[in-house]
Amino acid sequence: MLSTSLDRKLDSEYPSEDIKDMMLYKVNRLRIQGCYCGGEYMPPAQKVIWDDILYTSALSHATEMKRKNFFSHFSARGLDIGDRLDRFGYPWQVAGENLGEGQRSFREVMNDWIDSPSHCRMLMNPKVEEMGVARHSKYWVQHFGKKLPKGSRRSKRK
Q1: Strand, coil or helix: what is 132?
Q2: For the segment 91-100, what is each residue's pLDDT rounded down to a tens digit?
Q3: For residue 101, what are the CA distances in angstroms to 9, 71, 128, 154, 158?
């Protein structure tokens, strides 16, 4: 499948409004319809909105994977999605991550995520409210989150 001009503009640079709108449209179209993730039906979920901190954290992880030649939900130093969002100052109550490697377009990576039960469940998670997606080289990272209510704090993780 050929990548679109919108997809070519996504690699390692802040996405234009057109690109963000396209990615949000594709994710939200799935969320509002509901779908099967593997054999499990996932009912419709609320739409998500774009968050720049989630985008920045996603780009940072994609860039690190390229630079250090690895593919993992953990950073090279062993930090998980929550640890990495903490470092970027995202006050998360709920956090999640989808990864892709080698897809040439957002359409292609989105189809792969839908075909993977665990990635699909993350796309459909009713607890998340925001997302950011970044691509660096062959690496795709999609971060999801829901912020803590204003004035509240998360207890320390062990």
Answers
A1: strand
A2: 999 999 999 9
A3: 17, 8, 23, 32, 30
